[in-house]
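job 3f2a | input accepted
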Amino acid sequence: MGLIHIEMFTSLDLVGQAPGGPEEDPAGFPFGGWQVPLLDEFTGEQILAAYKGTDALLLGRRTYDLFADYWPHQSGEDNEIAALFNSVPKYVASRGTPDLSWAGSTHLGPDLAAAVREIRDRHENVKVVGSLDLVQTLLREKLFDRLDLLVHPIVLGVGKKLFDGGEVPTNLTLVDPPAAGPKGTVYLRYGLADGIPATGDMSAPDRGIGHEA
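job 3f2a | predicted structure (213 res):
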């Protein structure tokens, strides 16, 4: 069985909407392209490393349309991301009827959970990029294995967030030590863990808080 990786660019307040440019979401979001001024060599290296071994993409309809309009026209041996995205299978989660003109694209059926489980069985490393509506379903159904976050040192205050109502109580474990770049961007990699968050009492005797020795 393979792994479903959610790969997300976010602000400190976990807004993940339209990081790459104003055209990603031109209606009602004033900070389209917020990631661009914070890009540096560290971010590029982390992104390239994150995609190594990817053998499929799982995308929501809007992200797919943006990618299909851009990546097929980015060619050349020096563009590793374009070569990867253009060569691997693309699976599109949509309630509508998307235009699947990008080579290697497949529209998933209405039973999204069953379709994602089938993709996981078919591939080793499936990447979910952007696709915030799809991510809400994956979080709610716990249909993911890794949650990779590039957290940028800004607070946007508005916009669609990573945790925007689809999440359920979930335990995660840190897969690798956090890595930080010179502009303050931090890369965090979490893995899905069993169970749900536990509770405790900070004033309990075994905590050593609120009690005299």
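job 3f2a | The mean pLDDT is 91.
job 3f2a | closed
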